[in-house]
Amino acid sequence: MSLLNEILTYNEKFVENNEYRKYETSKLPDKKMVILSCMDTRLVELLPQSMNLRNGDVKIVKNAGALVSHPFGSVMRSILVAVYALQADEVYVIGHHDCGAGKLEPISFLEAVKEQGISEEVIDTIEKSGIDLKSWLKGFDSVEETVQHTTSTIRNHPLFAKHIPVHGLVIDPGTGKLDVIVDGYEYVKEKQNS
Q1: Mapping DSSP to helix (H, G, I), strand (E, B) and coil, where does residue 137 land?
Q2: Is pLDDT above 90 for 192?
Q3: Same domain for 132 and 186?
Q4: Does the pTM of the predicted model rise above 0.90?
Q5: Is 98 part of any known ligand binding site?
Q6: What residues does 86 pair with on adjacent strands?
Q7: In a 3-state reduction of DSSP, which class is residue 96?
Q8: pLDDT by residue (tens digit) across 97-137?
Q9: Helix crossing, 74-84 with 143-155: angle to 10°?
């Protein structure tokens, strides 16, 4: 049986048995927050549990590395939608130790792409169009610096309200321990007093 068929078989029973009822909630986050987190498999259940979050409490945006790599990309758009259309009034950027995105190495990544059948010609065409794949695919050295950079990118976005706190945290994917890197409340208070 294929994975898709396995999923669909399970889903049919899930719906028939009304299992969805225990997850019913509204589309608005009860705790009025949006989280940008890494897509790491270790965080799927650990992150919400470590923060005492239940279904319906929060909007969660996930990508490789918990990054806003472009101020007008889909990640930033999702954060703005959560704030302005879905009533989130705090943002949490949560990176994690031992992040695979931080360890990305562009040359080996592109080799893996080629091994999957993408031609050198396609890669050359992308690079000739002005995309620097080696920079785009490069990992990062410090999760703390990446979290600081991402919180700054969000805070300084021209469409982002300056009174909304943007917090930066790092989670240990083994224990769930959270360390604060950027206290968004402190930043907002400093800006209001200056």
Answers
A1: coil
A2: no
A3: no
A4: yes
A5: no
A6: none
A7: strand
A8: 999 999 999 999 999 999 999 999 999 999 999 999 999 99
A9: 60
Is 99 a known ligand-binding residue?
Answer: yes
The pLDDT tens digits of the residues spanning 46-96 come to 999 999 999 999 999 999 999 998 999 999 999 999 999 999 999 999 999
Confirm whether residue 40 is marked as ligand binding. Answer: yes
| Same domain, residue pair 58 and 115 | no
Phi, psi of 91 (to 5 degrees): -120, 135
Are the C-beta atoms of residues 167 and 184 closer than 8 Å to each other?
yes
Residues 54 and 80 both lie in one domain: yes
**Same-domain check for residues 23 and 76:** yes
Cβ proximity of 60 and 94 under 8 Å? no
Contact 68, 41 (CB under 8 A): no
97 labelled binding-site residue:
no
Query: Among residues of the chain, what percentage have pLDDT more than 90?
Result: 95
